[in-house]
Structures
1.
Amino acid sequence: MHLQADPLLFGVIGYPLTHSLSPFLHNRVFKYLNLNAFYGRFETLDIRSALAGMRALNIKGFSITIPFKQTVLPLVDQLDPIARRAGAINTLLNKGKRLVGFNTDVLGAMMAIKEVMDPKGASCLIIGAGGTATAIARALKERGCQISITNRTREKGLALAESVGGRFFSERDLTGHNFDLVVQATPLGMFPNTDSWPLDPCSIKASLAMDVVYNPMKTKFLSGCEAMGSKIISGYKMFLYQAALQLRLFLGIDPPIHLMEKIILEALDESDGNSSKE
Ligand code: NAP
């Protein structure tokens, strides 16, 4: 038994969390490393109480997910520079009741993209203007990309496009435009609503398409892009790398990345677009 009294406590907070593989992944890794640590699933829409609970119960670390990545910013005591530049937090550490925000989505996404292409100078379309879209748009901008944004709420999309010196497109205006990279950064297509997609892949031409949704491994959007001739990157790659970086922040250890990939692939393969394992 790797769990004894008073384990180190971690967890994911957000809503909804049915799709999240994080509890399954982190707990499997803790068990493999024989650590007295537990990672919980805390589905909530009350971010302030969740943070108060983190301090009061000495929860060491949270993964922060939809819809809190941006709203949590003013509620923390300190921000890591990457999270500050990204304008979003996905990892929160409790350092003696001081809450410090980090963002491992940024490097996780860049690592996944760099396996397939060097983004320097690429033309990139980001679908979405939320926490994940903002972090990825800013990181790609820092790496010399030309950024375009499309988003359901025009004002939010315009604001993000302006903040990265990019252009906003409504879906209608995308037809006929070519991009080196398209990143789908909305929750559309995520389990259990696997039939939804943010825009018709036929309306864009992309050499490479990445989805941030990782459950299912190949979303309807990625299948559509592949059918249109794009290379694709599954969201599971970003999930793997951001989780590995998060584990390093949580425990100060070198993450067992191959084991983590095996756990994720087995879980997604078995579930094939079903709910998370725990
Ligand atoms: P968020 O801040 O709430 O932003 C959501 C974005 O999606 C907004 O642009 C929103 O548009 C758009 N959207 C939501 N519902 C929509 C709908 N029905 N139709 C059209 N657009 C819609 O969320 P987030 O934190 O960025 O998370 C987005 C997704 O990324 C989640 O599924 C999350 O699980 C995933 N993610 C994956 C990884 C990974 O490691 N693979 C890492 C981070 C996040 P409006 O502006 O119009 O509301």
2.
Amino acid sequence: MPSKLQAPRGTYDVLPEQAAPRRALEQVARRVLEGAGYERVETPVFEATELFARGVGASTDIVQKEMYTFKDAGDRSLTLRPEGTAPICRAYMQHGMQVRSQPVKLWYLSQFFRYERAQAGRFRQFWQVGAEAIGSDDPAVDAECIALLWTILTELGVGGIELRLGSLGTPETRASYREELTAYLRAHEEQLSPEVVARIDLNPLRAFDADHPGTKQVMAGAPVLMDALAPEDLEHFEEVRGRLDAAGIGYRLDPTLVRGLDYYSRTLFEFTSDVLGAQSAVGGGGRYDGLMEQLGGTHTPACGWAAGVERMLLSAEHRPEPHAVCDLYVAGTGVPAFALAVEARRAGLNVQLELAGRSRKGQRKQASRLRAAHVALVEDDGSITVEDVVNGETEAVPGATAAVAHILKGRHL
Ligand code: HAM
């Protein structure tokens, strides 16, 4: 195959042998989230570009350089969704979900697209499981969101997880804090690394992540946002922490936690796994009380998270799943064989039909490869012999209906 026809960089195929752990992940997510009253939603793969520019934030890396944006034949600017929160807020407004009982609790398992540098655990097309609780500012919502993701990661056996927790307060608090931090960095410029100095105005918070010894020393004494929180934001944060403490969910307070999306306010969190190496974030989220207004709606407080499917799979223990049982393999290639397969499936049996015109000898091998519990040898004249593979007994039966009845009677459970 010509190499230019291979799957694009940063994408991957899910082969049949890789399907089982993904299915197990979906089952755990569904059980945990639907058990807590979250309902599944799906939004379109592409949306108006403006939704993300407004929602995720025009100055974020995602909007600046990671979006797959294109014009359609009607000259509209569309973007393959890089994340799910802005589209869900759009759907909430578009379908008038504010009249439903609040908070509206939604979950999704969908594909997202970001033009990022592809590497282990980082793809250009990837999957997320996510949950959004929209319409309540109760700190119980924040704590429940965190607890649900914690439960999913724990049930999946994601190794070495750590929960980092912080609070951002309001946009006003953040703006005045940013000024304070910028002034502090300017006052210590000569001790900072040149990279940090170059980014002081662009993103002063990045200085907290630097490895440079001089910068680290300066940052140890830097003002932190959490100390600047307004009393009501601090109280909200204490309420969230109290609930996590009571539930025995451990966390590390991280006053410097930042995430690459602009819509957060108040609670912010991220789970990391030490199994993952460089791309250690498994999932994260927070409160986004201002997003709905930013998108042109009314004030609607909300909270949610998303977790990367590939990263959860990379860091989880894999418990092998049993194979799907083949109740019946129909060894025959004619019309009567086909009719028997259809009738047996209608009766609820898992049936595989001979599809490659194998010889009787080849059919034997195929039956054992499939680990079929029964084999029906069907001749083109319609005569059928059913073999019970487990006890080796064979029986000639008068037709398809009798064959199905015979198998159901002797089915090995
Ligand atoms: P995010 O932190 O950008 O948040 O993405 C959530 C998770 O998706 C990450 O922790 C990571 O596991 C996975 N992820 C992100 N980018 C990639 C990639 N290129 N390849 C593989 N996995 C990736 C959001 O997307 C927010 N919408 C979360 C949220 C929901 N906040 C509130 N509600």
